[in-house]
Amino acid sequence: MKNILKVAVLTLALGVVLLSCENTNEPKFERKLVINGEIKAGQSIDSIFVSWTEDITEKYDDSWAAGATVTINGIPLNEHSNFKGAFYFDPNYAVQPGDTFLIEAAADGERVTSRTIVPQSFQFNAIGVQEGDTVEFIPGDSWVSDAFFTLEWQNYHDSQVQIYRVTSLADTATAENFIDDDRNIADLLKGDPEDRENPSIWWASNTFRYARINWMYFNWTGWHSIIVSAMDQNYYKYREGILFNEQRPGEEYNQIVKGGYGLFCSSASDTIRVFIVEADQ
Question: What confidence score (pLDDT) does residue 13 get?
Fold first, then answer.
């Protein structure tokens, strides 16, 4: 009898555990619009992407919001004929520093909005390099190894800008011009060779306002564009939320796009072109 009672109690307990597992408090999936786009000073407005969120428990389907109505400052955007869900503005229009843009997207009864203010015109000073220079790649052994050259912008001021994006973009990134650096320190700091990406992206804060361009920025030889971009508040808040959301739960980076998700931001940039060659062994 005691054994039967014990089995009954264990069975009841197991049933409670299973019931508890089934009745979780996970939020119910809601289909929302997603906007991803960057407005760049001096350029036209192109490649504003609008899509739908996807339920991670369901098989992935085409999530692009084809046929959505998208406007910027009340003016309709056109949808690319060969890429549904990607929208563009008049290609003859050039974004000006300090401009304000309000984007609205609507589809299937959903509507989302976001606003950005384009940062002021941005320029850096190049130290130790000139436009079109050939730069010798010398492998380093830390984040702070000797700089090939330095870009600084100490005199730049825009009260909304708190972060700068530094992009190293190779014109060609193939196996033929890949810099074969398989040292343990390179794998540790850059990742395995197959995981190294083009472009490589770094960040600088208002505290420093310079970038020491060293071996960490390059994984291929040949022509590169080194682009420093002053980023707007939307980009700063979104990145901070991604990195620190668990530590700062009150900062809701998902509210960059009101009523939905994604990132609508703007930037002002300066670029220098350099040609990378490997040092003689």
Answer: 36
